[in-house]
Write a structure and sequence with these properties.
TIM Barrel; binds (6S)-5,6,7,8-tetrahydrofolate; single chain; 8-stranded parallel β-barrel; 270 residues
Length: 270
């Protein structure tokens, strides 16, 4: 699976403080831990930080890339901010693979962000929601996902650069959603061959729940069995990463060997 690190997010106090004061050391430490844990992509989200968000994005992306050569996903719910930030980060880091996280399937939003991805050669995450918000059923998720996928393919993006996110919500407020997300992935996986990637922001499922780590790793295994192949998650959570590795061995996504955890780490060179 493709592990996106969730940890470089201004929602976390250490990152928020680092961005507000432009302190690189705290960012370097987190990024090194995430890469050592198995992160393939570093998702960066400013959260509630102060200052100019475009400058902060450029600063944070540069700082991340001082200690990692992994791709970087620029994570914001504000399309206008992404439109400004993507070209600037592109110029600052010409050798870094970038992803846009995220667009909705609302024509006004994807009509701007998909061409931005095509122009700058980035990957893109498409949420299965529109102007009306996150759907309460499977059908609407599938409709939004298919619409986003078709629009992205027509604009020349390759399936490998397209990530569909069926949006997982906290189980304590939206108890049917974990099931809806898995069913939406199953249905969307057959819409195109080769299929796009399927991703979720895993920790959303357990926000404000007790034993959130247990919920995260149980749900990750369930979603991988439904066809998920990427997640925004804490790559430094060893139990979580090892649950994912064992699930992939059991799903025959990794060649089995007796020491399959070690084999996985060797493959990643970590
Ligand atoms: N889909 C896409 N992008 C996303 C999300 C998604 N980006 C943001 C978010 N959701 C994924 N990232 C996080 C990061 C942290 C948490 C959840 C999702 C989180 N943190 C703990 C909390 O709030 O309880 C800990 C915070 C702390 O310790 O301070 O839950 O769904 N495409």
């Amino acid at each position: 699976m493709i592990i996106f690190s969730e940890r470089v997010n201004g929602m976390y106090r250490d990152i928020r403080k680092a961005v507000n004061n432009h302190e690189k050391a705290a960012v370097h430490k987190i990024v090194k831990e995430q890469v050592a844990g198995g992160a393939d992509v570093i998702d960066i989200n400013l959260g509630p930080t102060r200052g100019d968000p475009v400058e902060n994005f450029v600063w944070l992306a540069r700082t991340v890339c001082e200690v990692s050569d992994k791709p970087v996903a620029l994570d914001s719910a504000k399309p206008d901010l992404l439109i400004e930030a993507v070209p600037k980060v592109r110029d600052a880091l010409p050798d870094t693979k970038l992803l846009i996280n995220s667009s909705t399937a609302d024509p006004a939003c994807m009509g701007k962000l998909i061409p931005l991805a095509a122009e700058h050669g980035t990957g893109i995450i498409g949420l299965t929601m529109d102007k009306k918000g996150v759907p309460g059923d499977v059908d609407k998720r599938v409709e939004c996902g298919a619409m986003f996928l078709m629009t992205a393919l027509e604009s020349g993006l390759l399936p490998g650069d397209i990530y569909i996110d069926p949006i997982i919500l906290p189980i304590n407020v939206a108890p049917k959603q974990p099931w809806h997300v898995m069913e939406a992935i199953r249905q969307l996986a057959v819409v195109n061959d080769p299929p796009p990637h399927f991703i979720i922001g895993l920790s959303n499922v357990s926000q404000n729940c007790l034993r959130s780590n247990l919920l995260n790793r149980t749900y990750l295994v369930m979603a991988l069995a439904a066809g998920l192949d990427a997640a925004i998650m804490d790559a430094a959570d060893k139990d979580l990463v090892e649950a994912a590795i064992s699930a992939e061995a059991l799903l025959e996504k990794q060649l089995y060997s007796d020491d399959y955890i070690k084999a996985w780490r060797m493959q990643k060179d970590i």
